[in-house]
Amino acid sequence: MGGGGACPSPPGIPPILVLGLGNLLLHDDGLGLTLLRLLEASAGHRPGVEYVDGGTQGQALLAWLEGRRALLILDAVALGASPGTVHVLEGDRVQEAMPAGQMTAHGGNAGDLLRAAALLGDTPARLAIVGIEPAVVKTGEGLSEAVTDALPEAVERAAEILDRFQP
Asked: What is the chain's mean pLDDT, rounded?
C-alpha cells in the first residue's frame, strides 16, 4: 500500500486520521461511530490526530484521506467470526479482508474507499482497521450485547494502533 510514503502532511492537515464508519439506524452497523466517540474520549487530545465521523458517506470521504500519513478506520467488520469478535487488520491485510464491491449498509466499504484512494495516489503509508464482528445489522437502534461487550477491547486495540502511528 502506500501512495502517501513518508511525506509529511500538508500544513494544517493532521497526519493521522481516525475515521469512524457506519449507520446508527442499523443496530451493529453503527459500531464504528460508537468506537470513534469512545476512543476520542479515552485517548484524549493527541497532537497530530483528527477524529472524523464518516457515517455513511462512502466515496465522498476520499477528500479526508488526502495528505494523511496514517489512517485508522473503525467499522463493523464481518469476516464470518463469532459476533463480538474484535478484528484488527493492518497493512495489506486490510485490502485482503475487504473485497471490492462488498455491500455494506453504509454505501461502500472501507476496501472500496481505499482502492479509490490508491487510484488517486492518496493512500496513507500506514493503515489499519479495528472493527467488531456484528451480530445484528437490520433496521433499529442500539448495539447488540455481543458488540457492546467487545467495545472496551476494541477501544484498547485502537489506542495501541494510534500509539504506534504517532512518531
From this structure: 80
CA distance 59 to 88: 22
What distance in Å separates the CA atoms of residue 150 and residue 167, rounded to the nearest whole number?
28
- β-pairing verdict for 70-76 and 49-55: unpaired
CA angle 98, 16, 99 (to 5 degrees): 5
User: CA 77 to CA 87: how far, in whole Å?
Assistant: 7
DSSP code of residue 24: T
pLDDT of 68 > 80? The answer is: yes
pLDDT higher than threshold 80 for residue 6: no
Q: Which long-range contacts (CB under 8 A, 24 or more apart) does 56-61 make?
A: 56/21, 56/22, 56/23, 56/105, 56/106, 56/107, 57/107, 58/106, 58/107, 58/108, 58/112, 58/113, 59/107, 59/108, 59/112, 59/113, 59/116, 61/19, 61/113
pLDDT of 8 higher than 50: no
